[in-house]
């Protein structure tokens, strides 16, 4: 307990897992907390200050399972291991305590075990540094450094304060480090809650730029950071705090790290947090992957490829050259079906080399990680050969050629060594032994033969003793208490207790029916066999360490191989989905064009196919048409306008149309083919989506306030290069207030922002803006009326809707007939008021009370008597049972009923 309390005092903010034999035990308050979180039994052991000591424990063999549950509950865990064998402690005295200490702090952002991680999701630890601007105020520029300890990915960048939420939602870190004095002022808390990230305050001294620069140089093994670009003082401070925290949690073990990559700035398409949620990029509105853009596009066959695809969706590019290089590669793999299938077959099941290398660098790896590195290198070499042979006379696209070169650079010597060293199916833990192949090491083979041939050695010894004594029932046996011993029956034991055999055979134990003996030779042979097993395990550990060092020496090359494998899987996945779903290559340039022919929503389209709900109705969208020679055929020039006002009833597909065009922008700029007949997308700097809203109770913001905050962000940040979709602005407040806000918003987008925008609305008054503003055009979703119902055609056409069909939609939703009838009466009276507004006064007061307005009879269908009669005749007719003559007679009868 004294040892436990001393170690716990050094780790007060963590649950202390205290290793005792085959269990991790927890004591005192840690035990109470863990027992409740894990649902395990809380017991007690001994007393402290006169009180029982609470205790609970988990088996070491199932540690990962329980650790994952504690991390999900938001706890940090300090893992305290036994640092020596108990036999060594006993040499210091009978009451000596086994030496223990914390070997690792486990936090949400520092996980490396496969059991604790999602293979298809990155696990970022992010440090956020908000530099003060003077006078006690925080600056507007924020430095961010992010590190995935499980793969070595390292990102550094600066973002504006207004873009911080979007950047954190892009990264989706599991843990965020902040200055302890600025934790409540930097605005990180609400964002962390939204993305379910843990916030860890760290001392302000950790955010030191000079220390950060030294630590980065040390980690990267360079004397100067110039090779990786220039970094601001804030970026160095954030990186320093991040790497110092990694040192703290890993207790001296340094993980593999890749060269830092720039994030934010002008390199990527900026998308704020609200727009990411609205467009359901990585997760649907329910929080599941199903129903997201990622789920629709993911055809990857490796975890690393899935992580790369998610990264590309979260971070579309603005570099036209790189975008088109990706499109070239996707197009090549799409057209070369045989090559694509061979590449995907080779990648399928390929080990996650990045995570294996990370575990080995932290000395948490096992034999399977060594095997994973060797297998990944073998596949990399075969893929390089496959790509090089596929280029033919036209050659590979530049990006694929570069990947082939990276894969060809795989260290073949290391791959061959690992293949020769590791058995086909190695054990999970290195302490189990048996993972080195026979023939790899002569010394190991020799001690293994002694260990494994012990049965033969003892059988030969037993045969000799039988011959020497003449006792045919003599047996050499073994148990865990006595080890090896000689056993004879009581009837034959007399000969071994008398000279001359008594000088060789020493009595050990008398049983009811037998006696047990030993010999000097037997004891020496047993010692050799026992030490052979220990020596074999020790040699395997030495070989494991040697191979781990070789892998560490190839760290940068292995990181490049991991990146190339992930990139290739991602490109092949995008080519596969383009071929299967019928996507086309978009034209991406630096113009302001946005011209999509036959656009479709990738997620909704796949859902309709999956549910056998019919085809998706495609729609064109021409905000800025390309020059005449490049213009696809079939577009109506009358619909062209930088801003489209989209009207039509609810459920007609307006929101889907808005979102599908935003997703086409994103897919084009991430380097993917798009769901359309053809598409021309001028590069977009910011993508905004304000479709749907809900209240934010935690922050005390109503639905309308959330809507206004998001709209304000768009109007304050959108530029001529931006793409904006807005749905139902102003509907959360009074009619005239909402209409006024929507009207002014459209004018601001047109006159000030100058962006390309799709604006869906039920305020039909806004359609008048198309006559006042040059670059505003009206389009509407077509519907057909049938009696008192409507049929949604989901097809856009030029023009404006004259009504919203809200009552018909309510009827489809199942509103009682009394309600829809009453609504019609109110609507008619309101429309009459609007027509007679110049006369003043209102007629709503003249409406009868609701009860009086309830129809006594079912509401009229609106049919004529002739139509009713025809309907009755048809309802009584079964066409499948009619003869030709009966059918002819029916036609004459219907003709008579129609009065013709």
Outline the fold blueprint.
Blueprint: H1 2-10, E1 15-20, E2 23-27, H2 28-38, E3 43-48, E4 51-59, H3 63-72, E5 77-82, H4 86-90, E6 100-106, E7 125-134, E8 137-148, E9 153-160, H5 164-171, E10 175-179, H6 188-195, E11 198-202, H7 209-220, H8 233-250, E12 261-263, E13 270-271, H9 273-279, H10 293-297, H11 303-314, H12 320-335, H13 337-347, H14 353-361, H15 367-390, H16 398-408, H17 412-421, H18 442-452, H19 454-469, E14 475-479, E15 483-489, E16 506-510, E17 514-518, H20 520-553, H21 555-581, E18 587-589, E19 594-599, H22 602-610, E20 619-624, E21 643-647, H23 654-669, E22 678-682, E23 686-690, H24 703-717, E24 723-727, H25 735-753, E25 756-760, H26 769-772, E26 776-786, E27 789-798, H27 806-813, H28 817-835, H29 850-853, H30 865-875, H31 884-897
Parallel strand pairs: 1-5, 7-10, 9-12, 10-11, 13-23, 18-22, 21-25, 21-26, 23-24, 24-25
Antiparallel strand pairs: 1-2, 2-4, 3-4, 5-6, 7-8, 8-9, 14-15, 15-17, 16-17, 19-20, 19-22, 26-27
In the CATH hierarchy, what is the architecture of the largest domain at level 2? Answer: 3-Layer(aba) Sandwich
Helix content: 40-55%
Annotated CATH homologous superfamily of the largest domain: P-loop containing nucleotide triphosphate hydrolases
Strand tally: 27
The CATH topology of the largest domain is Rossmann fold
Order of strands across the biggest sheet? 13-23-24-25-21-26-27
Q: In percent terms, what proportion of residues is strand?
A: 15-25%
Q: Which CATH class of the largest domain is shown?
A: Alpha Beta
**How many DSSP H or I helices?**
31
- Radius of gyration equals 37 Å
Outline, from the CA principal axes? elongated
